[in-house]
Amino acid sequence: MQRKGLLKSYVFHELKERLKCEPTYESGMILSSMCTKPHKFAVSIFTKFIEKNVGDATLFPKVFEMEKEVVKMIGDLLSNPHPSGHIVSGGSEGNLLALWVARKMKKGKNKVIIPKSAHVSLRRAIDILNLKLVEVNLNQNFQVNINEVKRAIDDKTLALVGVAGSTDLGIIDPIDELSELASTHDLYLHVDAAFGGFVIPFLKELGYKVNDFDFRLKGVDSITIDPHKMGLCPIPAGGIIFRNESYLNLIKERIPYGAYGEFEYATITSTRSGAAVLAVWALLKHFGFEGYLKIVRKCMRVTEALVEEINEIKGLALMTPPIMNIVGIRSENIDLHLIVNELAKRGWFISYLPTHIRLVIMPHVKLWHIKRFCKDLKEIVKLHKFD
Ligand SMILES: Cc1ncc(COP(=O)(O)O)c(C=O)c1O
Q1: pLDDT digits (tens, 9 = 90+) for 363-386
Q2: Is 87 helix (H, G, I), strand (E, B) or coil?
Q3: 90 within ligand 1 shell (Cβ under 6 A)
Q4: pLDDT above 90: residue 261
């Protein structure tokens, strides 16, 4: 650190210069992210209440209370009349908390069965908690192979994990079948709907055929659902929802240094952004179910337009018809790495995965962006005589 401070204007100028090469969501050229430009109203609430610490219930009891209301609203979306949970740093922390609770509930057991499509944070959570990872293959629909799950269950198994909106393709596992298995074998079932949680309930309402994934399935114990992804809230706003309060009680700890006595917390960090909680509270109230419905409807229209365009490009194919606003593109004879590089030269950001390229159609991606993207993609395929 330098000894003497610099003028704010100087620092700000340097900051702007340093960051100007980074893309913005607004440009519409980011197709690789599960986050988006947070909604203006949520940002205004976030900045207005920036000093709030929801981790200190003695100083900020109202924020603490409003977090419970957030959990209730999200619980409602997930068909849970008695939810408990928290707004945390992200989906990764949500997954870690869920497996921590699972380990406390099922003492003496250590095996966690997850699909190969599970987000990396689940493998890391299993490692942190010193549990045993069992990864199960996918079926031809890229869902967890239920027969393999059945075969993997033994008397050491403590939990099953299902994904509702996989990171690579937006696939929803057969959570109903996992739920049956969990009930039959007395296992904990966690559903990672970090992305899909703010999509699937609206897809259902819009008439899309999507599997049940939430607490209406009796075996589901917890769900990760992130407001900072399709919930359009500012980072950090991950969400973890448990079936009821008894789950959180297992990981609650007393903090003795509150302003007028002790208080409890159940998250990994004891200090947490109250601004994030209030931004989620405000946006959920402002949007309501119908607000999110509109957003998901728009994303799906753009996704469907993209699918039509991709189907017209010789040499490219969909990995699978998209379930939600995530599209995977594969090719037998075209070097996808080359395509990604050429697209990058034209300013597009897309994910290059081992089996396919992935496009996430977030709310900042409009129809005209997709038209431009597909024009570029077609040109690149032609230019390199791929077709
Ligand atoms: C399905 C799923 N779960 C968990 C996570 C991790 O969320 P975060 O990056 O907010 O920690 C992601 C991130 O993309 C995800 O796609």
Answers
A1: 999 999 999 999 999 999 988 765
A2: strand
A3: yes
A4: no
**Do residues 110 and 132 lie in contact, with contact meaning Cβ atoms separated by under 8 Å?**
yes
Q: Using CA atoms, how far apart are residues 208 and 273, in angstroms rounded to an integer? A: 35
Mutate to test the pocket of ligand 1, among 92, 117, 324 (most ligand atoms within 8 A of CB): 92
Mean pLDDT for the stretch of residues 41-55: 98
Residue 199, both tokens: 């999509």
> Residue 165 CA: which ligand 1 atom is closest?
1
28 lines ligand 1 (CB under 6 A): no
Mean pLDDT, range 306-324, rounded to an integer:
97
Q: Does the beta carbon of 214 sit less than 6 angstroms from any atom of ligand 1?
A: no
Count the domains in the chain.
2
Token pair, residue 200, equals 């699937």
C-alpha 169 to ligand 1 mean position (Å): 13
CB contact at 8 A, 90 and 225: no
Q: How far is CA 343 from CA 22, 99, 357, in A?
A: 16, 39, 12
Q: Is the CB of 351 under 6 A from ligand 1?
A: no
Domain boundary (256, 286, 316) is at: 286
The rounded distance, in Å, linking the Cα atoms of 266 and 261 is: 17
Host domain of residue 165 = 40-286
Determine whether the shortest distance from the Cβ of 195 to ligand 1 is under 6 A. yes
Can you read off the two tokens belonging to residue 324?
Answer: 């939600």
Q: Can you give the C-alpha Rg of the chain in angstroms?
A: 22
> Does residue 158 fall inside a structural domain?
yes
This model's pTM is above 0.90: yes
- The residue out of 286, 312, 329 marking a domain boundary is 286
* Structure-token pair, residue 185: 């074998």
For residues 77 and 265, is the Cβ–Cβ distance under 8 A? Answer: no
- Taken as a whole, the chain contains a residue count of 387
Q: Torsions phi, psi of 174, nearest 5? A: -70, 80
pLDDT tens readout for residues 266-279:
999 999 999 999 99
